[in-house]
Amino acid sequence: MKTDVCDCEWKGAAEKGEASAQYVMGNFCIAKENGEAEAFHWYMLAAKQGHARAQHAVGDCYACAIGVQEDWKKAYQWYLSSAQNGYAAAQFEVAECLATGTGVQKNMEKALQWYLRSAQGGNAEGQVALGILYEEGTAVPQNYAEAFKWYSFAAEQGDWGGQYNLGCMYLEGKGTVKDYESAFALFSLAAEQECSEAVTNLGYCYEKGYGTPQNYEIAAELYLLAANRGDATAAFNLGECYEQGKGVEKNLQKAAEWYRFAAERGDEEAKKKCGNLPQ
Predict the structure, then answer these.
(1) pTM for the whole thing?
(2) What's the pLDDT score for residue 6?
(3) Spatial distance between the Cα atoms of 70 and 80, rounded to a whole number of angstroms
(4) How far is residue 160's CA from residue 188's CA, in Å, rounded to a whole number?
(5) Which residues, in sequence order, are CB contacts of 37 under 8 Å at separation 6+?
């Protein structure tokens, strides 16, 4: 009953043309069963009045076919309108479109500018993306210290991508000194958010005794968890566990199965292993 009253109050304001109320109505409708078309209607009304979050929402609707037919060119235009109004989440989406050539011609130079604006605006996804560019040296000179900085900002916000990538920096000593305890702690946080790569690296820490007492059994369990989610590196590592009898009973047939699983997902080392074990 309370929700219905709130809904009516917002709807009244929305029908009078208040953009913020129209945006809220869009959010109410998107949460309802079969409410996508009505949500798009309200978002569009607010977006046309320059409401930045509504413009982003309209972009999402076009990108994900929510209440409207998928149209990435229109999605990009609405993301751009929102981004130009200073909405950091939309700035990230604009950067992604430009980086991949989705809905717009690919342009990494412009993408970099929008990633930077998004990151500076506090968007965690933008911070992670900018960190990756600096770590890999894509569109910018390679700079591990800058990558470490942007991953740190994202990790501080609780973003699993920031936590995972920052953990890798600590594990490898890139942009900072090696710190296995910090790496282990960050992988643990990211793993709690079901980041499969973090689960794999957590297993690696247990296997090597990095930041935690060495424990082959836990390592194998974590590799299995990540492998079952489709992680090729975890599958390869689990294959090695079975091949060497580390944390599990030695079983060359199971080793071969996990190597094949990893190879099918593109792991080059696993492909080499496949020919040397029983089929």
Answers:
(1) 0.91
(2) 57
(3) 17
(4) 10
(5) 67, 68
